[in-house]
Design goal:
alpha/beta; Rossmann fold; seven-stranded mixed beta sheet; 13 helices; 21% strand; binds S-adenosylmethionine
């Protein structure tokens, strides 16, 4: 799958369950403190905060005992959470036109639920347009950063999240919906949307120049042992012709939900130039790079760096952001 993060392979199952959500409540309360000092009056990097977050993941791991797939998913999510600051620094932003299309002509005052809000990369521009945004996010460190940027966040898995009677004009999810149990998440989105409200899903996919993509293909197949699952290469996994692969499951889940009208799919092209080191940092924001054995990771990143240097030290990524929308029928 090209469009989405590799984490889709280990798509989150319903993780929160009772104990996950209870564990999360410790952090959730803190994310609504008015002074923005997260957890026991410390900032997000303090030992108290880290300890609280570790206990949260430990408790989720206990829920996953005996379920190998869920255990692996949690392990990966936890690594991902540890890269939260890097994620926020270096992951691409979304084009303004996509956020505008998502919200429509009168964004001010809309109530928006952003699922898997992460550090708020999509939630922030939504809020800047005057909408009232609430995030739901599984990973506490990601949520802390979003909160630092002014976004209210409730921590836990969306599939288990208690809407407590609230409803929304938009349910959005950027670069995250594939992590979820899609039929369950789609039905839940329908249940909390107001009539004529809409679901809006965003992903960005990108391609290196084809000659660089080919050279990187050689690097990965040489350095990474065969049998290791294919590393996602930071949006530009494949050749330029492959960018649009991978949305069938998303669209099918919405089409199969009786409460939604027709699905629209719009694509927005844009470009971004990456210097070598910016690209390496982006790669490190993927959990699978954090999970690599350190020597292998160094060898791989060295080889990627050399390849980019051989191509002039920087390159232009051709991105496309897709916006999938569907209206909640009245
Ligand atoms: C690739 S990040 C995207 C973050 C943000 N929306 C953005 O555009 O940068 C995916 C996020 O979804 C979160 N996530 C994964 N499964 C989730 C679930 N079941 N419920 C809520 N959030 C989830 C992850 O913790 C992660 O922060």
């Amino acid at each position: 799958m090209t469009l989405v993060d590799e984490e889709s392979k280990d798509r989150h199952q319903s993780l929160g369950l009772g104990s996950g959500v209870r564990a999360a409540n410790v952090v959730r309360r803190s994310l609504h403190r008015e002074d923005d000092k997260v957890v026991d009056g410390n900032d997000g990097n303090s030992p108290a905060s880290v300890g609280t977050t570790d206990r949260y993941w430990d408790r989720l791991a206990l829920v996953a005992v005996g379920d190998e797939r869920r255990r692996r998913t949690l392990e990966r999510s936890r690594l991902f959470d540890q890269e939260a600051e890097r994620y926020d620094r270096c992951r691409p932003r979304y084009p303004d036109v996509v956020i505008d299309e998502l919200l429509g002509p009168e964004p001010s005052g809309l109530e928006v639920l952003d699922v898997g809000c992460g550090t708020g990369i999509a939630a922030r521009p939504i809020a800047e347009r005057g909408a009232k945004v609430l995030g739901v996010e599984l990973a506490p460190r990601m949520a802390e950063i979003a909160h630092r940027h002014g976004i209210d966040v409730e921590i836990g898995a969306f599939e288990d999240w208690d809407a407590a009677g609230r409803s929304f004009d938009r349910v959005t999810s950027a670069q995250a919906w594939h992590w979820l149990d899609m039929p369950a998440a789609t039905a839940k989105a329908a249940s909390i949307l107001r009539p004529n409200g809409s679901l809006g899903l965003i992903w960005s996919g990108g391609a290196h120049p084809d000659d660089l993509a080919d050279a990187l293909e050689d690097v990965y197949s040489t350095v990474v042992p065969s049998g290791t699952h294919r590393l996602f290469r930071g949006y530009g996994a494949n050749r330029s012709t492959d960018v649009r692969a991978g949305l069938t499951g998303v669209v099918d889940a919405i089409t199969g939900a009786p409460d939604f009208g027709a699905v629209t799919e719009r694509w927005f092209p844009w470009t971004q130039r990456y210097q070598r080191d910016e690209w390496l940092e982006l790669l490190l924001s993927y959990s699978e790079y954090a999970a690599l054995e350190p020597n292998l990771r160094h060898r791989l990143l060295d080889a990627v760096a050399t390849t980019i240097d051989d191509h002039g030290g920087s390159f232009l990524m051709d991105f496309e952001t897709v916006l999938i929308t569907a209206k909640r029928l009245g």
